[in-house]
Structure formats: C-alpha cells, structure tokens
Amino acid sequence: SAQQTPGDQLPRYVRVNTLKTSVEDAVDYLKRDGFSYLGQALKLDNLTLKNKDFVMDLHLPELLVFSPKTEFHDHFLYKAGHIILQDKASCLPAYLLDPPPGSHVIDACAAPGNKTSHLAAIMKNRGRLFAFDLDGKRLATMSTLLLRAGVTCHQLANQDFLKVDTNGPQYKDVEYILLDPSCSGSGMVCLRDDSAAHPEEEKARLASLASFQLKCLNHSLRFPRLKRLVYSTCSIHSQENEEVIAACLQQNPNFRN
Ligand code: SAM
Prior knowledge:
The protein is of the alpha/beta class. The chain is 31% helix and 18% strand. Helix 5 links the parallel strand 7 (128-133) and strand 8 (154-158). S-adenosylmethionine binds at residues 90, 109-115, 132-135, 138, 160-162, 180-182.
C-alpha cells in the first residue's frame, strides 16, 4: 500500500501569473470550473482544505491554496501559463526581493525558473532580468516555462555564475540579486532523508555545498550597484543558511546590512 509522507498533507499552492491574468479572473475561472472559493485565509487553520475548496493565502495575495494533491497538470489555467505550481516557500524570495518595474536584476542560479518568472511578474516585464544557469538541459526547460508564462524581460545565459564579470558594462545598473544556489534539499518534505545512512559522505557533501554557496554570495556582493540581495535554499541545515551569511558578512565588512 502507498505510504503516507508529510508532503501528502501539505496544501497545494498555486501562484497566479499576473503577467497573463489577474487573481480575480483566475478565481472566477476556477469557480466556474467547480471549485469553491472561501476568500482570504485569516489563520493557518483555514489552510486545511477539503475537496474542491480553495482560499487566498494569508500573506501573498497572488497565491491560492487548495486541498493536498489537487491536480492541475492537465488544467487549462496551467497549460496556458495563467497559474504556476509553486509552493509558498518558493514564492517568498522574489516577493521579498521585490524589484520595481524597470530595475535591473540578476537571478544567479535560475533554472528551472519559477522564481525567475515570479520576478518578471513583480517587475511587470519591465527592466532587465539576467538569468544564469550552468546546466544547459535545465535551461532549455526553463526557456519553455518562461515562454508559457509570457516573460519577455529576461536574458538567459548558460554560464557559470562565478565566472560572470561583475564589472561588465551590461551589469552596471544591477541593484537586485536573487541567489538560490544548489543545496542539499534537506528541507524538501517530498524527498526522503537518508542522510543518516552515510554520515561521513553527508558531512563532506554539506561542506562542499556550503563552500560553493559562500563563493556565490561573495561574488554577488561584487556587483558595483547592488542594493538588495535575497539568499535562499531548500535546506534546513544552518551550515547552508545562517553560517553562509555569517561567513559572508565577516568577509565583506563594508557591505551595509
Ligand atoms: N531558482 C530556481 C527556481 O526557483 O526554479 C532553482 C535553482 S536550483 C536550487 C540551483 C541551480 O543552480 C541548478 O539549476 C543548477 O544547475 C544551478 N547551478 C549550479 N552551479 C551553478 C553555477 N556555478 N552557476 C550557475 N548556476 C549554477
């Protein structure tokens, strides 16, 4: 029999892509499609949903919340790029970076691009969004996703972010950076954690990830006009989170925080 995992009980989050539609129109469409809208959630309990009920998130108005495992992969709104299947945690980085329309932004480790498309929506497709990824295959997937989402302000580069010239003339107005580097993924409830099986290997892997993350963060701070940066991972290890930030601030005492 199928085993229950914590992920099975988590609500299904859906981000409305405001480049293609409005929250109001998406809600109307879903109501006509048999879902029942209960309004904005006021407390966490309101996120425990049954059947076809859905609510608006407590914090992010573009985020709709459905009962666990509600399936949208074949849904019109998904296929047309009007909704993006994106967990709340993954919506927070772009929401917090909040680059204004017209600004110049870097998404340093961007593929498959859900955060990139969220950034473009916040920027209303105005300004410049430089997105890098080392992995060509993931970048190809990303290209399709951005096309479906109607993103036009981006420039994709199959490039090692650590080798991007921070003094390049095209980056002289970059004020916002989103840094979401490769991590252990230990915070993803859908992944089974079997790290306890090989403690030594796991230790070495974490150390190497943390060193890469710190290099990316230090590199980001070298962009001359950087004003705001959001660093995110899907890890629950402080070694990949707080400790990376602390080491970076120690190595860059002149960066205002
Ligand atoms: N931000 C993405 C999103 O929300 O869809 C997820 C990014 S994923 C956590 C990390 C990405 O970093 C991977 O796609 C990986 O290929 C890429 N990556 C790893 N090393 C890199 C490097 N040196 N330069 C640029 N990208 C890199």
